[in-house]
Amino acid sequence: MAPPTVLAKTSSLPRQQRRFLPPLHSPEHRRITASFPAELLQDFFGGADDAAHQPLEHSKKKPQEPEGSPTPVARQVSDETLVVHAGEKMGNGKSSTDSIATPVVSGTTHWFKNSEDLIAFKEGLRQSFEYGRYGNPTVKVLEDKVSSLEQAEATLVTSSGMNGIVATLLSLVPPGGHVVTTTDCYSEARVFIRDRMGKMGIRSTFIDIDEDMKSSLKDVLAKNDVTLFYADSPTNPMLKCLDISLVAELCHKKGALVCIDSTLAPPINQKPLTLGADVVLHSATKYMAGHHDVIAGCVSGSEALISKVRAWHQDIGGAISPNAAYMIIRGLKTMALRVEAQNRTALLMACVLECHPLVERVHYLGLESSPWNHVASRQMTGYGGLVSFEVKSDLRGTMRFIDALEIPFIATSLGGCESLVQQPAVMSFWGQSGEEKAKNGIKDNLVRFSFGIERFEDLRDDILQALEKI
Ligand SMILES: Cc1ncc(COP(=O)(O)O)c(C=O)c1O
User: Where is this region: Disordered (predicted)?
Assistant: First the structure.
């Protein structure tokens, strides 16, 4: 039973090269999820599937390794390693400090040695930075890290998720263009597409994510010259998901681009570009930053598309501060650990809730009762930390449940270390008509729970005691 240490296998390499951790030749190197020492040893030294990064459907099957195979299997550096190293020592190489932590370069402008040096920069012969709104070394490290996780050629980091959404839509859809989106995409993006882009002469069509979605999309693509298909997957708070490969195939046949807001599925759980999307964006405020302490967004895709988005973004002035970028770099280092804990807690809790007599319905992609479970299992590597459920009560009873909870904060947002809970009828739809709520599938008894990284048993006990109070 040889302990599979990566460093032992690479220790003959020069130090700098070791830090790159080239494709690992270690089939034993896998994500460890077990909480107990015996399971952990079992998982590490044998018996378990090499399940990390396999879509959930595949992770159920055990790959057969040829017995005693002497040939090492080349594999990609894992997400757990990329979140820590990508973009930093890796790929940068021009840092003027030995600090392990990426420096926060706070300067707003960069100087040139002389005019020839400036011309070399303008001609692209020398990589540097000019003015903080166009780019910054700390922000660039973050952009490279995200590109690496998304398997993208390029990434733009923005001052908020909404800023990234607006820059993407404005840059990729010209006046006279046509956007197709879904009825339950992020509400502010939906309003921007319908109202503001509508005033710019851009048409939009909204389709439902339901069993007829394929034919609705085919129909709208056949009857219109669609520029961009834009959608969240998974959706918030009803946790539906799109078949991204299918949507990309249909759209690409008709020359339309596909942009996925993957905020609810960070790259540990889903990589839409690998499924055929052209652009993926996130509110990095959520899982990526992960600590409820920084607002940011990111947009990734091909160099050609992201340079278009970047040009618009420079004009609308949505640069993120280097301090905020550093906080996300720091937050990302633990993203794999955090998200794995959140995936696990949410899945276990969804199962507990689904069997509870005081719970009417649970919305979670990891449950077989979810109509989107089979698609999610094919395209995701984890179902995420958000669970929505309907308690067997009315508005007031549900409020009593929320108020009886002791661990989570009553707050909007999701994806951070602290669990958050909210009742959408009160938090986001207070004062809106029943018709408006029904249109968005929001019932008075709906609870949206964003699981943090607290221990599962503590959260479970808290939820169970609060259910008794409805
Ligand atoms: C799915 C989704 N997309 C985009 C956004 C906007 O992100 P931000 O608040 O960082 O601007 C949010 C915010 O809640 C969101 O939930």
Answer: 1-33, 47-76
Question: Domain 85-332: which topology?
Answer: Aspartate Aminotransferase; domain 2 (3.40.640)
Establish whether residue 186 lines the binding site of ligand 1, counting it when its CB lies within 6 angstroms of any ligand atom: yes
The SS3 call for residue 409 is strand
Q: Is the CB of 450 under 6 A from ligand 1?
A: no
Q: Which amino acid is it at 435?
A: E
Prediction pTM value: 0.86
Rounded Cα distance between 377 and 367, Å, is 10
pLDDT in tens, 397-455: 999 999 999 999 999 999 999 999 999 999 988 888 888 888 888 999 999 999 999 99
- With a 6 A CB cut-off, is 226 part of the ligand 1 pocket? no
Whether 13 lines ligand 1, by a CB cut-off of 6 Å, is no
For 127-225, where are the alpha helices, taking DSSP H only?
137-150, 161-172, 187-191, 197-199, 213-223
Q: Could you read off the pLDDT of 258-270 as tens digits, one per residue?
A: 999 999 999 999 9
Q: Please say if the pLDDT value at position 16 is more than 70.
A: no
pLDDT category of residue 72 using cuts at 50, 70 and 90:
low
The torsion angle over the Cα atoms of residues 64, 67, 68 and 73, rounded to 10 degrees, is -20
Candidate of 283, 414, 448 to mutate for ligand 1, largest count of ligand atoms within 8 Å of Cβ:
283
Every domain range in the chain assigned CATH 3.40.640.10: 85-332
What spacing in Å lies between the alpha carbon of 386 and ligand 1's midpoint?
A: 14
The CA radius of gyration of the chain, in Å to the nearest whole number, is 23
Nearest CA to ligand 1 atom 7: 161
CA distance 354 to 390: 10
Taking the alpha carbons at both ends of the chain, their separation in whole angstroms is: 53
Q: Is the CB of 102 under 6 A from ligand 1?
A: no
Tokens standing for 166? 């607006």
Q: Each residue of 338-361: pLDDT tens digit?
A: 999 999 999 999 999 999 999 999
The protein residue with its alpha carbon nearest to ligand 1, atom 12, reads: 283
Portions of the chain given CATH number 3.90.1150.10: 338-467
Does the C-beta of 389 come closer than 6 Å to ligand 1? no
- Beta-strand relationship, 228-232 and 203-207: unpaired
Annotation: CATH topology of 338-467: Aspartate Aminotransferase, domain 1 (3.90.1150)
Instruction: Say how many Å lie between the CA of residue 411 and the centre of ligand 1.
Output: 14
The rounded distance, in Å, linking the Cα atoms of 208 and 203 is: 17
